[in-house]
Structure to design on (192 residues):
């Protein structure tokens, strides 16, 4: 028994090529990729030289006309002069006299301690706020309003003169030299 093997796919039987009779019957060669970069590189290089040549000539097609001569050439100007009629009377100039008055500044009181202040902070009575009785509408939120009178700003438990947690409106009397600390309270206003 004799076996015949089919011809390879890139060869046509009996001398006829894939494009018909008379066409080459050899194997199809893959495109040369190694020289493709050379062709594109040469085109890019030539384009670069052409661009540089155009740029240095100023883009002008005529020789001798560069951009420097176009910028240096003076531009024409047009001046229109109109003459006044000789018989037209002109109005006389107006004379205005002015007097300089320097305003005297209003006498203002020296800023002193405040009589109303925020419900958040620590204040020295007599320097930051005036001594007296103050009231607040109560806490800013549901956590309550805390106030504290202290003999100094140390924050020690022994320096507290009086303190309170308010859930509604409240009053406190402050004396000169004391420290008043307030947290989460609405504005304090002096009432006496």
């Amino acid at each position: 028994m004799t076996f015949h093997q089919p011809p390879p796919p890139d060869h046509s039987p009996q001398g006829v090529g894939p494009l018909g009779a008379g066409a080459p019957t050899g194997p199809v060669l893959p495109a040369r990729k190694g020289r493709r970069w050379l062709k594109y590189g040469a085109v890019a290089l030539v384009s670069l030289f052409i661009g540089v040549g155009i740029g240095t000539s100023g883009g002008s097609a005529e020789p001798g006309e560069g951009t420097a001569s176009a910028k240096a050439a003076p531009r024409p100007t047009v001046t229109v002069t109109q003459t006044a009629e000789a018989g037209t009377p002109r109005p006389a100039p107006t004379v205005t006299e002015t007097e300089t008055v320097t305003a005297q500044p209003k006498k203002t009181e020296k800023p002193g301690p405040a009589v109303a202040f925020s419900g958040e902070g620590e204040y020295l009575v007599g320097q930051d706020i005036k001594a007296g009785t103050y009231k607040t509408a109560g806490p800013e939120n549901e956590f309550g309003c805390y106030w504290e009178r202290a003999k100094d700003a140390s924050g020690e438990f022994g320096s507290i003169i009086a303190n309170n947690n308010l859930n509604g409106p409240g009053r406190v009397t402050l004396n000169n030299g004391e420290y008043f600390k307030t947290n989460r309270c609405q504005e304090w206003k002096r009432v006496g």
Remarks:
- The chain has a mean pLDDT of 78.
- The helical segments are 36-56, 67-72.
- Strands lie at 116-117, 121-124, 132-136, 145-150, 160-166, 170-174, 179-183, 188-190.
